[in-house]
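Do me a favour: review this protein, sequence plus structure tokens, and tell me how the chain folds. Record follows.
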Amino acid sequence: MYTCRECERELNQATEVCPYCGTDLSGDAQPEDASPKKTKWVSVFVRYAILLGAIWGFMWYVLPERRGGEAAAQAEDRAIHALRDAGASLAAYADAQDGTFPRSLEALPGESGERMKRTAQAALAEGYQLEYTLRPAEASGMHRQYTLLARPRNWGYRNFYLDESGVLRATRENRAASVQDPPI
């Protein structure tokens, strides 16, 4: 129910003239200066900026880091250096131990062990995990063969393989490199 602005009596909402005092009520339904509300451009800009910032933050969190070709080549070079350094350290250890290789890379003694830790950490910082595996022991119980893999954590980088022969092999496929892959 509506009330008349002059006599303050209750009226039917369809009434255009107050039956009690005769006041014209047609202006009550729509004020004279009622224009459509305009949206301020600053408010629109702020809303879109917040929306774009939220989308960007989500994409930054979800998508993997993309590195350029030069960075990928640098990471692969670091992995190759780590594998060759590990191969040299393992060969020196095997020469000193009558052809037997250590059970783990951490078992390398002295300076070669420290150098191996540093190169493995440098390869890990570039996105490569070194995996050292001894092949089954001979009847005498001595381990004379090993495989050393450099596995990338980033998609699209090469996988590397090194064994006691000293030949470094690589593949771009999403699998561990093996002795069947071409040498580099």
Summary: The first helix runs from residue 26 to 29. The beta strands are 2-3, 10-11, 128-134, 146-152, 159-163, 168-171. Helices lie at 26-29, 41-62, 69-96, 110-125.
